[in-house]
Design a protein that fits this description.
2 copies of one chain form a homodimer. Chain A has 239 residues and is of the alpha+beta class. Chain A has 5 helices and 10 strands. Chain A is globular, with a radius of gyration of 19 Å. At the A-B interface, helix 2 and strand 4 of A face helix 2 and strand 4 of B.
């Protein structure tokens, strides 16, 4: 038997998903709650490993054996992480390997004064932006590209091509501009570096052509800065 | 000359609007920032005094003399309060006395597990609700009523009638049910006690008829509990 967890978290006060000794991680607090409820060690497999400060609205994780009741887990978990569902899954279900694609969003808050309700929940960007250029860059992302320019040079990744299924900027409420991207898998910092590079271009420090050229495996130093973690959300995982 | 401020705040870590010695209040931190920028004492008049833990998306305050630049004030303020606008107003403008009406909303988060992103931003209500009954109660609020039942017995209010311009429940996003109400002025705890009483009725502990009777000046003990502060937002002020 296997179990599937659907998890939501505010990543602000976590050192990311992956368990590490001595730091507060989402995997760490979840595995601790699971081991308390199930009375055994329960290693989790996750669909999208998120970095420090990155949020998730619907992360998916799996483990072997019986599921633990979501209510019991939530009774033990800190309130910045919540198990939305904890259910039986098909035997051998693997949240990472069986995922067909992941959807991430990146939130920009564009008003001059950052809303107190958006602290840690969006990147504050109160500067002019060439929206047509942002849209042009996003449109060029669909398809298979080499994203070497969009992940740190020191890397564990061995393959740098990714299949982008869809990418677009859209208004996500008053003063909020969101970038949405779906791909088979993502490399470390990939969405944040895509956003940082598009923001450079849309602020007059680049062009759509230059952005498109970066998608052909250019080196990291030719892309822009990595946008702050607090604007990034793992929105969903498709199977 | 007079000045008008438009202010947004997350009320979680404030002991309400009104300045009080030794506690952190929105009026306190704003008047301190104003006095630093304008180099004089600047008493503020406010459209809607909010209680401890209550939020505001567009509070309005006024003071005599030149406005201070919003940017300078925001540079001095803590990040849970932001000045959105700070502008000249007509001579003698009074944010409280010139306001024609205030709009408040109350957010309920109805999913079984509270979203980490709604902590302190909504009241968690994962119980069944008779939505038709909620709508019926809200519909009965329009017009002039005596709200004695919906404010504490110990009170500074001298007049208990209020004119409700509009009131309604509506879906405010996934798993969020919002109560919106506009009235000339509000009494202390009025929205929260209306919500608490409607939730009682919609949970089988009351009826639309009983709710309607409370609007005729019944005593406080006949109404329900005061709903938690964290779900309440001063949304806007009309002039």
């Amino acid at each position: 038997m296997s179990a599937r967890l659907l998890i939501e978290y505010d990543g602000t006060h976590f050192a990311g998903w992956a368990r590490q000794p001595g730091v507060r991680t989402i995997q760490g607090v979840l595995e601790q709650a699971l081991s308390t409820v199930l009375r055994r060690t329960v290693p989790l497999t996750v669909a999208g490993r998120t970095d420090s400060g990155v949020h998730a609205r619907a992360q998916v994780a799996s483990h072997d054996g019986e599921p633990a009741p979501a209510r019991s887990l939530n009774g033990l978990l800190p309130d910045d992480v919540r198990v939305i569902e904890s259910e039986r899954a098909a035997d051998g279900f693997d949240a990472r390997r069986h995922a067909r694609s992941r959807v991430y969003s990146y939130r920009l808050f564009t008003r001059s004064a950052l809303s107190p309700f958006e602290r840690g929940r969006a990147c504050h960007w109160p500067y002019p932006l060439d929206r047509a250029l942002l849209d042009g860059c996003a449109a060029s992302l669909a398809g298979t590209h080499d994203f070497t320019a969009f992940t740190p040079t020191q890397t564990d990744h061995v393959r740098f091509e990714r299949d982008v299924i869809a990418a677009a900027w859209r208004e996500d409420g008053e003063h909020v501009l969101g970038f949405w991207i779906e791909a088979d898998t993502f490399m470390r910092h990939m969405v944040r570096t895509l956003v940082g590079t598009m923001l450079d271009a849309a602020s007059g420090r680049g062009s759509e052509e230059a952005f498109r050229e970066l998608l052909a495996g250019r080196p990291r130093e030719e892309a822009g800065e990595t946008a702050p973690a607090c604007g990034l959300y793992l929105e969903s995982v498709r199977y």
